[in-house]
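Late entry, evening session. Most of the bench is empty. Finally got around to the prediction I had been postponing all week. Sequence below, unchanged from the version circulated by S.P.
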Amino acid sequence: MKYSTLLLVIACFLALLLVPFGVGNYSVRLATTVFLYAALALSWNLIGGFAGYPSFATSAFFGLGAYVAGIAQHHGVPMAGAWMIGTMACGIFSIGFGAAILRLKGHYFAVASLIVAEVLREIINTSTSLTGGGMGLNIPVFTSNPDLFGRIFYSAMLALMFASLLMTIWVSQSKTGFALRCIQQNEDAANVLGVNTTGYKILAFALSGCIAGTAGAIYGSWVSYIDPSDAFDILISVKPIIMTLLGGPGTILGPIVGAVVFLMFEELVWRNFMTIHKGLLGLIVVGLILFLPTGVLQIRRSNSRAWSQMRAWIAK
């Protein structure tokens, strides 16, 4: 990674850290939600965007991270330590689960990745003494100051998003990114050329699981209460996919742009068309994907190409 890129990312991170001191709690909460989904979209992009494997396991990692961290906090582990435990649990689980299902391809892999969230949901539901079952799990609140509370979780989600962005940049510029793109183009040919396709897929799946698990752990502490239907909600798997497709799969900034665009439309539609907001939002998303199949960043690339052609024409 170039030092200029790293310095730019750090500068943006520090600038965004100052935002909560000049806006209200509602804006802080909305920005925290954007960072949460941007991190989830970046996590899906590692396996879905770079490698081309349509994973629906995001909600499984998210819910697992939330519950492991929540249970750890119930047993007296400090909040940050509980987040780390949740992340490690998701990393170990994603490696084992990835080794089992990443030999599947296409819709077989998609279905297998989708089922794991339902399996974990049932396990959580039946483990009442440990997880609270269907009644949910209350997570200790570390402060009663709403301003401090909001700023802490704003900063935590912001840090997670930027860590996910740095990881994406590293993957994109490393041998791992090259191998994942080879897998996406032609996995059989990559195998013939000596690429360890299974190893790279498991690595991408594990990185994706760690990010989603950390997001779930932070989210659980943020809302102070989780239940199986919320933590393993299928929309947690679907929304990051839509966001990545909106921004541009396999790109570095595409998932973040897609998260901002999607949540902006979601907020505007919900405010103005409360009774039909889900249907209208779906139509908008379908329209954007149809007319911008490679993502919103396509507009910038198209404009840059048109501007270059115009300058070349003028030079003649």
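Two things to note before I forget:
The first strand starts at residue 137 and ends at 138.
The chain is about 80% helix and 0% strand.
Will write this up properly tomorrow.
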